[in-house]
UniProtKB/TrEMBL annotation:
This is glucose-6-phosphate isomerase. It catalyses: alpha-D-glucose 6-phosphate = beta-D-fructose 6-phosphate. InterPro entries: G6P_isomerase_prok, RmlC-like_jellyroll, RmlC_Cupin_sf. Coiled coil: none annotated.
Amino acid sequence: MSIIHEPALFDAAAGRLKGEGVSRSTRTIRELPGVFAAEEERASLDPTLPVYEVEMHDRCGEVEGGLYFGVSHVHPGKVGNEFFMTKGHFHQKRDRGEYYWGIEGNGLLLLMDEARHSWAERVFPGSLHYIAGHVAHRLINTGDVKMIVGACWPSDAGHDYEAILNEGFSVRVVEQDGSPVLLEARS
Ligand SMILES: O=P(O)(O)OC[C@H]1O[C@H](O)[C@H](O)[C@@H](O)[C@@H]1O
Ligand SMILES: [Fe+2]
């Protein structure tokens, strides 16, 4: 009997996970109502258009002390003048933190605390981001190639999308004169 087990694989160049415990999901434009300011334009786009994909390695389930490892692939694109982005979330268990790191492409990690104070960090291959507990996080692809970002977080953290869906982030990232700018959100 062998005691050497085959590990799962993280293909760093492609940003792809493979092997036991790996799952994959795609978020299409249809699944993102209320995320972009130009809601009418979003609703008029091909509903099957992929905005981002998430790969996840789960070997422990949602247990205290467990960890998940994930990779997000955010496609380049815009809805109106607003860049493609993830839904964004607080953790259900608010005190849980997370690490993100840039693998490919360029963009921003938008962060917002519970007092709705927002700021952003530039994401690029090799960038490393510590997301403290109580801080909502959203990835935004401001470039014209796919943005790939790795993540590791406590498996009991959970996702609270509700707060962001109801009130949004206090900042939106839009293209103005060919460059990404942060604007105070109206809703
Ligand atoms: O969950 P979203 O806000 O849509 O972001 C997409 C995904 O991004 C990262 O990979 C996180 O680690 C995942 O937990 C998250 O699900
Ligand atoms: Fe998270």
